[in-house]
Specification:
With 513 residues, the chain is of the alpha/beta class. Helix content is 25%, strand content 23%. The protein is built from 13 helices and 25 strands.
Length: 513
């Protein structure tokens, strides 16, 4: 099916740049992309609201993500419902038909009313349905807030009935927090390892020296997102930090200072790289990425895939070759359970026909009902150091065998390690495999000397060289020089090969920068 093929191609593109988490819009606006007993099918799949596409897109997406070692979080649009012009096409399963008292008309759309106690229950029921029926890794709450121009939101009836003499701003903030708390407790009661996250407005509140200019989470749309982390009713935040300069950096620090026991991964507005938007230079995003990493926030998110795929200003190439050269594990969510699983046993390397595999005995999980997966590490040193990013070569495998790629097969001196990881992100200690007493990289025939700026290459007849990382990705090509310039490469292990005019290539050796 074309939809399925396109989705797999998207995942392959993301996997190639080591993206480890996908947020997939699962509840759209009062509609779903899975067979729901609560709301109708969305029209994005068939062109017609309520029409079954003939397969379960959410189940398919989860399976394909997990095949690639990626997490899938169900992105649930919460408070907005649908345009007024669409309401008549929604059918009898429309929330407006079934629960009109919790719906409010605002501008050209229908919204749920956070001031109605039943709203929190309704949203929690949707999240429970997803969690019970699917092997998701997270529930991501989008638009868990009051709409823009909230001062004109017509919730006076709810306020008079339920306000209990609170200030309206505080009451509204408490309403949103009540929705978050209800969803969190409902989901965790079903599957405690499922991460709860949301994407609040990118500035939480005015800072001492930097104004939010009346667009912030806390006061403008009544999201106490930092309070959710502090209370422990959120695991992660993806604040929509679609800004630059002093609109970005001071507020990123503020998120860091208020992570509490949760994690914050700023969402970056890469759509602004497009000439049709703000035509930002790539440097704007690359600086933000480096800053986020330097202050040790919990990762980065991107809005949205289209602009990565189209490689605006070279963003895809930058992520693949520079910023994400290695795989990475998703952020742990282990405040409920922090006990790592038992170590996998009996790690072996074996050859079956033309294929070389690592095989091991499974780990017993520490928590009933959860699933243990496995991470693979490789290094020329022994024991393999699993704390080094460059040693991680595969993540979240759901089987006890792994096909070693061509580079690792050829490099028979590579040593390997396997760990078990549970659904909370707890990782076991590693079981190690020493494949040779002396690594191929310790041989002067293959290990090339370098000073960090140039690498010494042996004499050869080919006019060009190509440098790849350990995953076979080409990171640099150039004209042969005995003292070849590598100053632009990040730290890591690389392979150098010849490159002839007809594309013929032969390995010269390896170097560690």
């Amino acid at each position: 099916m074309k939809q399925q093929q396109e989705f797999c191609e998207i995942l392959d593109r993301l996997k190639a740049i080591n993206i480890n988490t996908v947020l997939l819009q699962t509840r759209v606006r009062g509609t779903t992309i899975y067979p729901s007993s609560i709301e109708p099918w969305d029209g994005c799949l068939t062109g017609t609201i309520g029409k079954n596409p003939g397969y379960d897109p959410l189940a398919f997406a989860i399976e394909e993500c997990h095949k690639r070692g990626m997490e899938l979080h169900a992105w649930v649009v919460t408070i907005p419902c649908f345009k007024i012009s669409v309401a008549k096409r929604m059918g009898k399963n429309s929330v407006l038909k079934k629960y009109p008292k919790i719906c409010i008309r605002h501008n050209d759309s229908w919204y749920l009313d956070p001031g109605q106690p039943q709203t929190a229950t309704y949203l929690a029921t949707i999240c429970k349905e997803i969690t019970q029926n699917y092997d998701i890794d997270g529930i991501h709450l989008d638009y868990i807030r009051y709409p823009e121009n909230a001062k004109r939101f017509k919730d006076n009836n709810s306020y008079q009935k339920y306000g209990k003499k609170q200030k309206k701003d505080s009451w509204r903030r408490n309403n949103i927090t009540h929705c978050v708390r209800t969803i969190y407790n409902t989901v965790k009661a079903v599957k405690p390892w499922v991460k709860i996250s949301s994407s609040p407005v990118g500035k939480h509140e005015d800072l001492t020296h930097y104004s939010s200019y009346n667009w912030n989470a806390y006061s403008a749309v009544y999201q106490d997102a930092q309070g959710w982390l502090q209370e422990g009713i959120h695991d992660m935040l993806y604040p929509m930090m679609y800004f630059q300069g002093n609109h970005f950096y001071p507020f990123a620090i503020d998120w860091k200072e208020n992570e509490h026991e949760g994690s914050v991964a700023p969402g970056l507005g890469i759509y602004f790289l497009s000439p049709q938007e703000k035509d930002w230079p790539l440097e704007t995003i690359s600086r933000e990425l480096q800053f986020i990493r330097s202050i040790k926030l919990g990762g980065q998110a991107f809005f949205r895939y289209k602009f990565i795929n189209e490689n605006h200003k070279g963003i895809y190439d930058y992520l693949r070759n520079t910023f994400y050269p290695y795989p990475a594990l998703p952020v742990p969510c282990n405040k409920i359970d922090s006990i790592p699983p038992s170590i996998p046993q009996t790690l072996k390397k074996q050859t079956k026909g033309c294929e070389t595999q690592l095989c091991w005995q499974p780990s017993a999980d520490n928590t009933k009902g959860t699933i243990v997966r496995y991470n693979i590490y490789a290094s020329k040193t022994y024991p393999v150091d699993i704390s080094l990013a460059q040693n991680l070569i595969a993540t979240n495998l759901d089987s006890c065998h792994f096909s070693i790629d061509g580079l690792h097969c050829d490099a028979h001196g590579f040593n390997f390690a396997v760990t078990a990881i549970d659904r909370f992100g707890n990782e076991s200690v590693a079981t190690q495999l020493l494949t040779a007493e002396k690594s191929i990289y310790q041989s002067t025939k293959y290990f090339l000397c370098n000073d960090g700026s140039t690498v010494s290459l042996p004499e050869q007849d080919y006019p060009f060289v190509v440098i790849t990382d350990l995953f076979g990705h080409i990171v640099q090509t150039g004209t042969y020089n005995q003292n070849y310039n590598i100053s632009s490469l990040p730290k890591g292990m690389y392979e150098v090969r010849t490159l002839g005019k007809k594309g013929r290539t032969i390995r010269i050796g390896y170097f560690m920068k």
